[in-house]
Amino acid sequence: MNIYISGSMAYDRIMDFPGKFSDHILPDKIHILNVCFTVNGMVEKFGGTAGNIAYSLSLLGEKPIIIATIGKDYERYFEWLKKNNISTEGIKIVDEEFTACAYITTDKADNQITGFNPGAMKYQSGYEFKNPESKDSLIIIGPGNLQDMRKYAKIAKDRGIKCICDPGQSLTQWDGDSLTEWIDGSYMLITNDYELELIIKMTRIDKRRLLKMTKIIITTLSERGSLISTSEGDVQIPAVKISEILDPTGAGDAYRSGLIKGLAMGKDIETSAKMGAVAAAYAIERYGTQEHYFTYNEFVERYRSNFGEFG
User: Fold this and answer.
1) What CATH topology corresponds to 1-7+49-95+129-305?
2) 292: which of 18, 106, 282, 311 fits an S-S bond (Cβ 3.0–4.6 Å)?
3) pLDDT, mean over the chain
4) Residue 285 near residue 244 (C-beta atoms within 8 A)
5) Global pTM?
6) CA-based nearest residue to 218, from 161, 162, 276
7) Which of 196, 199, 194, 268 is nearest to 232 (CA)?
8) Helix axes 251-264, 49-59, angle to 10 degrees
9) What are the b/e assignments for 129-152, b being 16+ CB within 10 Å?
10) Would you say 199 and 167 are in contact if contact means Cβ atoms under 8 Å apart?
11) Which pLDDT band holds residue 132 (cuts at 50, 70, 90)?
């Protein structure tokens, strides 16, 4: 299967706050919020939705094509991608901008506050699909340049390419009508539970009606696993046992990688979602979004130890 990943390339600057955000936010003063969180330190890692998903897919033996932009400080990231056998052919370099950067602070309850500078992501990637064949292709459209997100969804629908809509942090940039049009005709909508409620509020379309616009809705639920929803009903997928929780950042992107690998192998959606849960577990056990490592055999063995026979 040809796998395309539209989204962001970013450097993540990750910080830990040694307390809980909720202890320092006064609900009755939220309209005049002025809070400073002093963190323990900061580390910089490779990140971005497209980069993260591509990384775990490469561990699973796939060769995805990233569709994104990157800034003038691209050399270190390109070296990392090449080291991991990930193509850079679909990545456009924007010489007048720095690469997008996320400033992520996590508290002791695993809550996160993120500041994001889009940098090169303000520009469209301008990727041209060379292969008109759509039968064996899939594209996941994650948070990135909004014009790209709209354009590639339209191309996918026009060509019959399986399209996974993954709006994530981009939701604040959409209006209800445009978001509805974007989701309509997609193969899958994937969000966390908060994002799904926001989509329902923005579009004024309930979940039952959304399932008439997209075939599958997957809702990730953190430590409670994930939920597969189709017109036939819901299936709960439990989370995988974790040896040690170090950093939840990037777990959602790893989940998407495992899910997509399952779809590429022709697995059913339940097995694919379980593969997503396994990939997410590896990410949670390491600090950063592209720091985990596993072989395919290790991945399959962990799947079996949590879910039984490998679909």
Assistant:
1) UDP-N-acetylmuramoyl-L-alanine:D-glutamate ligase (3.40.1190)
2) 282
3) 95
4) yes
5) 0.90
6) 276
7) 268
8) 50
9) beeeebeebbbbbbbbbbebbebb
10) yes
11) low
